[in-house]
Every structure is written in structure tokens, then in C-alpha cells.
Design goal:
Blueprint: H1 2-9, H2 15-23, H3 40-66, H4 70-78, H5 83-108, H6 115-121, H7 127-130, H8 133-143, H9 147-176
Helix pairs in contact: 3-5, 5-9, 8-9
Keywords: Cell membrane, Membrane, Transmembrane, Transmembrane helix, Transport
Organism: Eisenbergiella massiliensis
Subcellular location: Cell membrane
């Protein structure tokens, strides 16, 4: 993923800087997206993380939509329901169990920010901005040789994740009517 991001966003020969700086003239100075502390968190969270997870989520939701009985759509269309009404009253309730399952699975990993992504993209400029719990545990345990403290922080993170998972499972029970886990 880093090599793809470097191909698109590097200062010298990145596609984005070449197009917007050289060809279109929109940027007066090339922007170093990979070593800019001001945009690093937004870039990592909203661009790269969403980009990584968007494909998998699309596959899951498309599979859920194809599992909805087509006769429901045909009956609604005959009754005069437009596209928006069919989405609101057929598609959304049809994919709600899938949404709940993905919510519960996502809750288990809510404190897992993706160590590999943040570790690879961190440099001296972006370290204060991209430092998170995973990289803190790594730095404390491996680099500073404080294994017991890093283990305690990691275990605390796991306990909080289990508590969050339990709360979201109870919410899913009340919304969906059945326990997921």
C-alpha cells in the first residue's frame, strides 16, 4: 500500500503532483502528502483507511442486497413505490442484519487502528500526529525494552475492546432481536 501511495503522492514524480502541479497548474508548489504533519492524520484516516476497507464492505453489502427477494421489489414497483421508497422500505431493512454483524465485527477491532499502515507511513515529521496506541505499544515494548508495561497496555486495550464488543452486542440484540455473539 505504501508503494501505491508513494506512486501517487510523492513530491518528485507522484501522479497527483504531476497532474495538479505540472499539467493543470492548480498547485503553485508540489505538496508532500506523505511527510506533511498538517494533513497526515486526515490523509491516513479518511483516504487510505477508507480506500483499504471500501472494497471489502462493498462486496459484503452487494451480497446482502442480492440476497433480498426480488419479488418484494416487483410488488413495490407495481404498488407505485419509487426508487427511494424501495430503498427505504426494502433494501435498508433487508441489509440491516448484515449491517449489525459488520458493526459487531468492527467493534471488536475499534481500538486496532492498523499498526502496519501507521508504522510504515510514520516518519520524523508525522510521528507526533500519527502516533497511536498500536505504535505506542510497539515503541514502548520493543524499542524501549519495557515489555511488562507494553503488555499491560496491550491487555488493557483488549479488555476495553471486549467491553465495547459486549455493549454493541447488547445494542444489536435490542435492535435486531437476536444475539450475534
Amino acid at each position: 500500500m505504501f508503494s501505491i501511495a508513494a506512486t501517487f503522492f510523492s513530491v518528485e514524480d507522484g501522479l497527483i503532483n504531476q497532474v495538479f502541479f505540472d499539467k493543470l497548474g492548480w498547485l503553485s508548489v508540489p505538496t508532500n502528502f506523505l511527510a506533511n504533519a498538517d494533513i497526515a492524520k486526515v490523509f491516513q484516516t479518511f483516504f487510505l483507511s477508507v480506500w483499504k476497507n471500501c472494497g471489502w464492505s462493498a462486496i459484503i453489502y452487494l451480497a446482502a442486497i442480492t440476497g433480498i427477494d426480488q419479488s418484494l421489489y416487483e410488488a413495490a414497483k407495481v404498488d407505485g413505490a419509487g426508487r427511494i421508497k424501495r430503498i427505504i422500505y426494502i433494501t435498508i431493512p433487508g441489509i440491516m442484519p448484515t449491517f449489525i454483524v459488520l458493526l459487531v465485527l468492527g467493534a471488536a477491532n475499534i481500538l486496532n487502528t492498523g499498526f502496519d499502515q501507521y508504522y510504515v507511513f510514520t516518519n520524523a515529521v508525522t510521528l507526533p500526529v500519527l502516533d497511536n496506541l498500536d505504535t505506542y505499544i510497539y515503541r514502548t515494548g520493543i524499542q524501549n525494552l519495557n515489555f511488562s508495561y507494553a503488555t499491560a497496555v496491550g491487555m488493557s486495550r483488549s479488555i476495553v475492546s471486549v467491553l465495547l464488543l459486549t455493549v454493541i452486542n447488547r445494542v444489536a440484540y435490542h435492535v435486531n432481536g437476536a444475539k450475534i455473539i
